[in-house]
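BUG: 3D viewer hangs when loading the predicted structure for this chain

Environment: internal workstation, default settings.
Expected: structure renders.
Actual: progress bar stalls at 90%.

Input used:
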Amino acid sequence: RKESSAASDVYKRQAYEFTRPDLLHVARTTVVLAADVIYDCAATEAFVTLLSALLPRLPAAQAFISLERRINFHLPSLTPRATAADHFAALLSKSRRLHAEKIKVADVPTCFEYERVAQLELWRVVAVSTSSKVP
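Structure tokens produced before the viewer hung:
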């Protein structure tokens, strides 16, 4: 049974690792788009870790992240909060490798008709250059 579990772990790890051709393709990336990826604190940490590893290797790249502040009842504080979105902002503010800024949603033109909810946030994230803190 342990062999089966170990083999499964190797498969999972290999199935989601970048291959050399993937890395060569990714090296030409200038824009990373992500939408609806901030909904859970653990997934948010994994995503910010990925951005922290990826963006410094792509000097001209920038990431644009769209998220909806999912407001849930927070038991420790007994208040409604957007825990994952707040965690995302806190991780970015502590990062030494990334610089992030919110984009005013009202400044972004719409391409099709839809109702923008007040909880919608747009973020631009870039790697911190070695010569200055804010690129």
